[in-house]
Amino acid sequence: MKILFSCLLLFLITDMLYAQPKWPRLTYRDDPATTIAMAWSGTPGTVYYDTIDHGTNFNQYAQSKTVDRTTTHKAYNHHFVRLTNLTPAKVYYFVIQYNVSATSARYSFQTLSDDPNQPMSFISGGDSRKALNFLGLGDPACWGNGCRETRQDLNRIVKKIRPDFVAFTGDYIRNFDVRFIVDSEEDWEDWFDDWMLATGPDNRLIPIIHALGNHEDAADLDLLFDVSNTDIYYATNFGGNLFRFYTLNSEPADVCADVIQKNWLINDLQQHSTPSNTPYWKIVQFHQPMIPHAEYAARTDMIDCWASEFEQYGVRLVCESHTHVMKTTYPVAYDATATTSYNGLVRKDTTGAVFIGDGSWGAPPRDAYPPIPNVTRDVEKTSGFFFVNVNQSRIQIQGIVPYADSIANIVQQLDDIQGTPLAAGTPLWRVGNGSQSFIIPNYSTITAVNKIAKQEKRATLMPNPATDIVTLQFKEMPTEAVTIEIYDARGKKCRSYANVQEQYFRLDVSTLCSGVNFINIVSKDDVESHKLIIVR
Ligand SMILES: [Fe+2]
Questions:
Q1: Residue 284, SS3?
Q2: How far is the centre of ligand 1, averaged over its atoms, from the C-alpha of 143 (Å)?
């Protein structure tokens, strides 16, 4: 007995010291051109990284970073390392060194370009939870090979087509059901195991931007993935000003009553709709759909309190989830005067947003209920997700469906070119009444380019990057007082100075977060925005 106990103890200690870090994964907390947030579970360690591949020889890597944060959640420890000041559009290689000399496998990721001329592609999808079947009650049978197997197949497709990132619209696992409470620890283990199937054959990791669903808690996304905002709403620019990507939290029962989120959203949309600071595109994702097609009623609170803002500030693509179908709409926007509408939403080709969804990354697909709304372009009961390719003049959308035996035909992508078109052989869904691809044209591209090109900045920031003091230097003495506002990368206002009328205005930035911040000069006619990098 003593020997058995000793062996068991030895095994546990050995496992603790030598077990490989589990489930390496990536997300963005900040500018995806210059930062990455890494996570893994189990064994603690140090990340060694470089733009040169040194294999598993950790001491040859030029840079290293110790753990910034550790959490304990769902039966594991999770370790987070936040890398900053990275070079845009570069492949980085890294290992996790643990227990003096042991290292993980060598992994890689690619920082995104900050040049809006470079296209970008991402996958939008959600609802990867397993089905519930209990004494004949619960979800209908899963589609294809079964819920978990379909999730795995879709992850294998991510691996093959190698998008620049994944935008995940929630419902990762099933942690609660009205019939009984389910312990979700094993569900999360399975989810992480399955997500590893999206890792490239060269150990390339694909970052995820996380949205909150109703089957997990905000704490799960914070403690498992190190998301940048514990209330799960945030926004980040991609490709410089190619597009600004918003993640919203649709879990409050009434988003109109969630005034903090709504004010943040409107403020951020305003800040990114000025002549000198307008991205080519604004894209939004959230979990519960404004325009559902199965099981649930439309969220009229979201239509009332978000839809008009989407049109006013030029949101042209909305990614939804939750009802387990594949759907696309025409460009739609709110119109209170319309005599025929879908809860106030009507088709508006040049100013509306296209809604895609609704979360079918393995969760049991549902029958679309009749009648199909007249704003709907297409809907089908099937599993899948969307491939979205963005350049300055258009967004191209293609639906992907894991038809049986089709994954082997997809050509494995191995290049490091951002915005690569969809891999040959990818099985496509008919996204629009028979068509396998549709385009959202950018009706405002020429205006946006001209405005950005014509606008000459009235001030500069010195130095930039800065550490503690930065001077806002106007080319000429302002003829009227302006307001100086400082925003963090998520669009949260950190500080404001009213009635500034000095040619050289000193700002103490020593208490601001390192990374990307924005300094806005607000006058009565314009808002001029400057990106400020803070390094420490
Ligand atoms: Fe859901």
A1: strand
A2: 17
